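User: two proteins, same treatment. go.

Assistant:
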Amino acid sequence: MLAKRNVRNLLIVLDEFRNRYQIDCDEFIIYASIGEANVASSKDDLIIMKPTNIANISYGLGIPKETVRRKVIDLIKRGLVKRNNNGVYISDLSTWCQIGAQLGEFSADLGIAPAVDQPARRDSSSAIGA
């Protein structure tokens, strides 16, 4: 059954990340959202890192700001996220891209076309990364 296999693949990706970094599902979603907000490409296909903040992540995910703040602190302690005066960033682009590739394979198995600069958010204007 295709649906069962696809769900299993997603669980494998989440479980691998959870075991490697000792994070929960909310932290995984927040980490992924931070990376999604950080990564932008230029017309030369260079990756440009831009900051985001807790308020944007909170709004985009519909998770309370205080929860996002606490989870970001935990992600910083685990070395997955960095914070400076400009905002919050993922620490290691290659780790984030590897997760994205695994989730892309999962999406392809589901027959979901890759998004083209359209984040899966409540608001299509994308408060995240704004």
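Protein 2:
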Amino acid sequence: MYCVNMKQKRGTIREDGMIFWQQKAGKEIWLTAEKFEKLKAYCKKYAKEKYLANSDKRKADAQKWRQENKERYLELSRAWQRAKYRRLHPPKPPLTEEEKSAKIEAKKQKARERAKAYALANPEKVRANALLWAKQNPERVNLRNKLWKQKNPERYKEFQKKYNASVPEKKRKHAAARRCKKKNQSPLLTENQKKTIECFYSQAVRLTERFGFQFEVDHILPIAKGGSHTPSNLQVLPIKINRAKGCKEVFMWQDYQSPLSSDE
């Protein structure tokens, strides 16, 4: 047995080559290298035999202790797991600022590649999720669009020009609504009223395709004269009649020949 107050550690080699074994009854026991190895092998063999001979009792005692000290057992188990992890995964040296930036950029690039691959594989799902997010976050969408317009004015103008050329009726609808809003003549519209206004502009497109000359949505009482952009103040007219009417509040139809009866 080891002495509690022993000053030397077993295996300490003295200047004369003697090896410390233990301290017993206040006396230090030093052995030669040959005797030290022989006694060490004997103790190891005896400890192993004793360990194997009492394995059942030892397992029962350990099981009993774990049941009586569950919290302490969990605490020791976690500590052992942490120590094992630190031993197998020693801490890495701290990264420099350049290495941190490069690591973050690599992660971002990897995430972008994954997102691009997912979008190519699931275009409909991605579009549906994007539309749902935009509907739920209109303020963030408006802010993002505003920042993009400020950073890319030339590209914005190009996109706006292509969009206006592809859907001219929508451009006219928004322009009329904007003029009414500037003059404070834009009342709050219900969903049905908005759909009705859409129908007027869709009808103008259908008539244009049907007859071969352009139709427009006209305000019966012009906006300049106080008219509003509401279904009750809208009508579909050929472009020549609409231009002749202009901003007049009352238009005399008998003074104008309809393009439907014209030879042009």
